[in-house]
Amino acid sequence: MSERDYYMDADMKKDPxxxxxxxxxxxxxxxxxxxxxxxxxxxxxxxxxxxxxxLALLYSIAxxxxxxxxxxxxxxxxxxxxxxxxxxxxxxTCLYFVPYMIFQLPGNLLLQRFGVRNWLTFTVVxxxxxxxxxxxxxxxxxxxxxxxxxxxxxAAFFPAMLFIISTWYRRHEVQKxxxxxxxxxxxxxxxxxxxxxxxxxxxxxxxxxxxxxIFIIEGAITLALGVVSWFFIPDFPDKNRFLTPEQTALVLKxxxxxxxDAIPDPMxxxxxxxxLSDWTLWAYGVMFLCSTMPAYSQAYFISIxxxxxxxxxTDALLLSAPPYGPAIITTMxxxxxxxxYKHRSGFIVFQTSVCIAGLLITAFAKxxxxxxxxxxxxNAGNSGTxxxxxxxxxxxxxxxxxxxxxxxLTVCLGGIGGIMASTVFxxxxxxxxxxxxxxxxxxxxxxxxxxxCTTLHFxxxxxxxxxxxxxxxxxxxxxxxxxL
Length: 484
Known about the structure:
Elements: H1 3-12, H2 31-80, H3 88-94, H4 97-102, H5 104-114, H6 116-133, H7 140-154, H8 157-168, H9 174-200, H10 210-229, H11 245-259, H12 269-276, H13 279-308, H14 313-318, H15 325-340, H16 345-364, H17 368-395, H18 400-424, H19 434-466
Helix pairs in contact: 2-8, 2-9, 2-10, 2-13, 3-7, 3-18, 5-6, 5-18, 6-7, 6-10, 8-18, 9-10, 9-15, 9-17, 12-18, 13-17, 13-18, 13-19, 15-17, 16-17, 16-19
């Protein structure tokens, strides 16, 4: 049986007479059905436009503020702050991730306590102020302190974004949405070096160095967006204020029919402890950790690696952007296929293999043009695995409380990927950085091994339930089957 048929069969096993506690609209067939389908498409399209661009823009700014250290280093910060002495640049890069990891889960718990709009607006404004302040640091020590503060305030943002997006859509609609969200953000990340180059041209204006203008201008933009976002950040479906009551009922019914968790359940420390004892949640986190290794390596070191190939500072900054272009196409294609066939692991395996090939080419090829092509392959493969793993994780949990812990834990462990990327690409290994590439390739192999373990585990549980060998419903939800 194909996987697509497998899930269709699972859907048919649900009790058709079961009626959602949220209510349902009794419709006559034919024209009434067509009207309902059109209404549903219009509603979901409106939700897409209302949620995804705004959240993606905000995360784009977070990503730019996080990764612009490499561009600022290339633009002169490394010389002015003596970051090339010892491992100072690696330390400043790495320490961001320590609080970023620690405050992931608390941030998601506070999200429900203080409300989506209040909490997320606070975090955006706070890290925007820190980013602006980085333009005035006199030494590398102050820079490192600002990076720590940046990690504290950005910690809650990404897992909250994933949590919010996953609550609005059915399980096999979510990867396309995460991919769109992620692609908008990495596209902005891709043009970050170009923006940094443009801002660095202000070198000397008002007695401020070009690299400092990068932080000042991008920090000011973040502050402005933080203020504006307070009016537009979306809440959870049951608390939203931008849909009509009929549209809200439709969205909630779709989620309830799909996985039975449209309405948030209360959070408690007992639940948190129970969820943290589930090994599969840790497996998602380690896989996400591995997937972020190539992404952070590219973000922090691509302009430095290109400069080491012999290109000038200007060319290194400008050539950092094109490798992100093909990744947009490949990521959307695989996200569409993954949702269409209701399958995740096979597509993740293929894209990871492409990423590994790109890393090996960049590490070991001799001609600089071929090494540069390897960066394109690395991005084309890696960019798709990140939303793939996030969708794989989101598809296989039920309830708001567990989803909150899962998204926070996944992104938390992903921060280790940033720490590893920032420490394994050492200054003394320039210009080829072979140890760093070796560790990054190893992380991709580890991700494939863990993916194989979880997929075999879920396949076994699905089979046992289908064959009647298991009486307890998966994830405590009748009719639920794991996505493979």
